[in-house]
Structure formats: structure tokens, C-alpha cells
Specification:
The protein is α/β, with parallel strands linked by helices. It contains eleven helices and eight strands. Helices cover about 45% and strands about 15% of the residues. The protein has an eight-stranded mixed sheet with strand order 3-2-1-4-5-6-7-8, with helices on both faces. The radius of gyration is 19 Å and the shape is globular. It starts with 5 loop residues before the first strand and ends in a 13-residue tail after the last helix.
């Protein structure tokens, strides 16, 4: 049963921590894994702050904080994932890094375990090649959006060998944590990132051509298009380095329309990538 599922999350960075949070707050038993103890500790602190922020906004009950936090355990050893019903891989968006994790999970996870990858650009069929053929029917893409605690959408992407039952289970799992899933074909960048990065590339081009300031472009997207954040705010939140990486992947797949702009490349090379405590476009 989905509502009783034991969830494993591999990777306790921004995405992994928030994926663990939304599952725990909706009643799931969560095991969160990372190789770095300090990163795990920071993730637990973040999850606690997310709950407290939700209390202040009237989303959660303060009296249930300890109950929610008790549903989350941490580990540095993937061997502890042998009892999980669902495992969500949420490590760095690089094929070789994900491949190493998936090979380990292939050996450790119990038979029938649903393995999901939180990739934003890499085709699911490619990642499925790193697990055994017997498991590929139980492998699926679940692309959550940042910040997971607030963004409702999840792209559910079946690979070439993903079974219909696995897709149905993934959709049900998303609904159980109050997310809205959409089914997307297994192509590089899926659907939302292909739309998003065309916008980001054009936004940087507008700044290069001095058509408008980056602050005014952000304002125009919020007030004129109804976006909650402008493209430069979003690049600072998700990091420009990750955006550049995604654009390079899609440029390789689709060609010229996804070619990263020179200004973005220059800023990433200079270290102006945004994220926690680092200079970005707007800070």
C-alpha cells in the first residue's frame, strides 16, 4: 500500500531533503542517505525549519513536529535500504554519479522495489541501463520541482521497459504526497525544462543586448506572465551552474536553440553561480 510505503531517498542536498520532507509530512517512513555526515545534519535542520515555517503559515500543526521528524532517519550506508518499498535517487545531476548509485541500489534493494530517479534532463532509458534487466520494469523517472515543499508538479517519465503498473504506482505515490503528476515522454529535458530553458536563454540574451535590465526582466515575468519568480531569480535559486549543465545536455540533444549564452558561461566560470551564500545574478 502506498500510504504505508517505506521510502528511501538517496542524496540529502536541497532536492533530496525536501523530497524526504514531503513524504514524511504525509505519513511515510523515510530513510535519507548521504555519504557526508555534515550534509545529512544540515538536511535534518532544513527539514525541521520547513515544518516550522509551515506551522507559521497555518499548513501544519506545531504539536506534530516531533511526530513528523521521527518518521525521518538518516544513514551513510545504502545497505540499510534493503527493506525499502520505494527508493528515490536524488543525487547530483550527472550521469556517472547517478550510475554509481543505481548500480549499488540494484544489488541492495529488495525484489519488487520501485526505484525512481529525480533527474531533470537525463533520459530514463539511459539511466535504466545501469540496473539489471530484471529491475527495469520497476524503474521510473519522477522529476520533482524546486522547492519541492512548495511546487506541486512532478513529471512522471516511464523508460522503454517501465511497466504500466509501475507508472500507475508512481502517479499514486505523487498524489499521496499532495503533488500533481503529469506523464511525460522519455526525451532529454522532458517537457518543463525544455520550456524553461528556452525562456532562460532568451532572458540572458536580452541582458547581453541591453534590451532591459535583469531586474526589470524578472519584474516583467512576474507581472506580465504571472510567473512566481523571474528567470534570474530562478537561476540564483537553483544555481547558474546547474542551469548551464542542463542547457549543455539539451544543446547536445537538440542543437542550436539550446546553446547556452556566452554571458551565462562567463559568470559560471567566474564563480557567480548563486545558491546559498554565493554571488549570483541579483546578489
Amino acid at each position: 500500500m502506498i500510504d504505508k510505503a517505506k521510502i528511501g531517498v538517496v542524496g540529502s542536498g536541497l532536492m533530496g531533503a525536501e523530497i524526504a520532507f514531503v513524504h514524511a509530512v504525509n505519513g511515510h517512513d523515510v530513510l535519507l542517505a548521504d555519504t557526508a555526515k555534515d550534509v545529512l545534519a544540515h538536511a535534518v535542520e532544513r527539514i525541521s525549519r520547513l515544518y516550522e515555517k509551515g506551522v507559521s503559515r497555518g499548513f501544519y500543526e506545531e504539536s506534530k513536529l516531533s511526530e513528523t521528524m521521527s518518521r525521518i532517519r538518516t544513514t551513510g550506508d545504502l545497505q540499510n535500504f534493503s527493506d525499502r518499498d520505494v527508493v528515490i535517487e536524488a543525487v547530483f545531476e550527472r550521469e556517472d554519479v547517478k550510475a554509481e548509485v543505481l548500480r549499488s541500489l540494484d544489488v541492495i534493494c529488495r525484489e519488487g522495489c520501485l526505484i525512481a530517479t529525480n533527474t531533470s534532463t537525463i533520459p530514463i532509458t539511459v539511466l535504466a541501463s545501469y540496473i539489471s534487466e530484471a529491475r527495469r520494469s520497476r524503474f521510473v523517472g519522477t522529476h520533482y520541482f524546486s522547492p519541492v515543499s512548495r511546487m506541486k508538479l512532478v513529471e512522471v517519465i516511464p523508460g522503454a521497459e517501465t511497466s504500466a503498473a509501475t507508472v500507475a504506482e508512481a502517479l499514486e505515490l505523487c498524489l499521496s504526497i499532495e503533488k500533481q503528476p503529469i506523464r511525460v515522454k522519455d526525451v532529454t529535458g522532458f517537457a518543463v525544462n525544455r520550456l524553461l530553458h528556452v525562456l532562460m536563454i532568451e532572458a540572458v540574451r536580452l541582458v547581453e543586448e541591453e534590451v532591459a535590465t535583469l531586474e526589470d526582466i524578472d519584474l516583467a515575468c512576474r507581472l506580465g506572465l504571472g510567473h512566481p519568480m523571474g528567470p534570474f531569480e530562478l537561476m540564483d535559486a537553483t544555481t547558474s551552474s546547474l542551469c548551464l549543465q542542463a542547457q549543455n545536455i539539451m544543446f547536445d540533444a537538440y542543437g542550436e536553440r539550446f546553446r547556452p549564452r556566452p554571458l551565462l558561461k562567463q559568470r559560471v566560470q567566474a564563480g557567480y553561480v548563486g545558491g546559498r551564500g554565493r554571488r549570483g545574478w541579483r546578489k
